[in-house]
Each structure stands twice: as structure tokens, then as C-alpha cells.
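Researcher: Structure prediction, please.
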Amino acid sequence: MVTLKNGNSVLSINEKGAEMKSFLVNGVEYLWVGDPKFWASSTPNLFPMTGGFKDDKYILNGKEYFMPKHGFAKNMDFEVEAQTENTATFLLKSNEETKVGFPFDFELRVSYILTEGKVTASYSVKNLSDDTMWFSIGSHDGFATPEGIEEYDVIFPQKETLDTYTLFGNLLSHDTTPVIKDSDRIALNYNYFAIDALVFKDLKSRTCRLHNRKTGRGIQLDFPGCPRFVLWTKPNAPYLCIEPWFGQADNVDSDYDITHKEAIESLEAGKTFNATRVITALEGK
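Model: Predicted structure follows.
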């Protein structure tokens, strides 16, 4: 475990998956710490897939490959490439194991900068292959809601009209259900998650707050440039996952061709993809 400190803040990161496991500000925990009663993970990093492929497989250049839901990075040991008192960079390189399901040479770096009450988390994906690399990447951050999610709102800086896309297992249908209309907040309710997650393709905002109505406690999450936005929890669980994705689950009518996949990222040989999100603790009262 790597521990970063800065003033009143402490961030703990597991080398497995380069996954944040604890974010303490003035002794208060802002992350879900991973109780297996509900969900054993905390903030897995999703690469090279967000969500699932149809039948857990895809086709590239006529060849079939198998890929588990949310990819393999979350289960792999990263190298600690660099570390200071308040920064750390974790590195995952392609190897024979990764090439079984993902036939590309790559370097994935996950970096964290801790300032007082704030974490800046960044992804850097470098394509070391000779061909275009097709991939998705995203975060799956679980945030603590010890009073239960129904005392919280997800608040946006502008009014939104949001419909969620219906999930069938790992797959997205083209059917939608209204969630909010011309409103700047989602009043959280466990009924939203009776099937699985809320999946939004048309969010205008690129920042949100998870906010306890009584205390003001919660977090702000900034996710510039991210085209997909997912909310998820389990029934009666004391956490909410807020998940900005560069990618999405396969559609129910997928033809398996990864180059046809909706919201997939393509990265030319030798190029680097970068993305950053910022988590700010809202201490409330």
C-alpha cells in the first residue's frame, strides 16, 4: 500500500489495480472502504474496457478475443514508477498475459496528486503498437454515504434533462427511462438501482457534487471531456459510485466488431491518451 500525505489529508493506494482505498480529510473517510458484504472494491480503474462486451468477446481484424467485464487492469499489479510525499505514479505495461485478450503493446499510467482536501487523478495511455489501438477507460469511484444514499443528492452546475439507458445484464438497450427533466439534481433513491446502474449519454455538465442535504458533507467530482456518466450502488449499501467513462458497455445489437463499438476510443500508433478527474472533499458541518 502506498500512502500519500498533505496537511490534513491522507490518501492510501493499493498497488493492485492502482486503486485508491482510503481518502481521509481531518480523520473523516470519503471513499467506500470495500466491505465485501456489499462490494469488496473501492475505486477500481477500468481498462481496456468499461462495462462488458456482448458474450464477453469482440472481433478485431477477423480474430476473436475474450475480455472480462471492466477489463483486466483492476486485477493486475502495477509498478510504483515514482513517488513523493504527496504524489505517486503507477505503471502497467502490456505483457503476454494482457495480449491474450488485448493484442496491443501499451503503457498505462495512473497518477495521483494529493493536496489538502483534494485528489487529482490522471490516466495516461501510450500506444506502443504499430497499429491503431481500440480501448475504453474510466473510473469506478465508490464514495462513502454512511447515512445511506437517500439522504444525498447528485447536483449539477446546470439544469439537465436525463434519461437512463436500460441495462440487460452487461448490455445496453436503446430504450430509455426518464430520471430528471430540467433540473440540477438527482434526489437519490435505491429504487433507481433495482436493476443495475443509471447510464447517461447526454450529460451536459462535466462536474457534479454528491451532497448530504442535512450536513452538506460529500464530494465534488470534476471530469472534463468525459462522454459517458454512470451512477451505481447496491440495495441499501452505504456508498454511491460515480463513474465518468471514456467508453460504455456493448449495445444489445452489437456486431462484435470493436471498431464499430459505440463510444470506443481509437489511439494511433505512438500516440498518448490523457484524462484527469479531480475529487474534492466537502466537509459540511
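Model: The chain has one domain: 2-282.
Researcher: Thanks, that helps.
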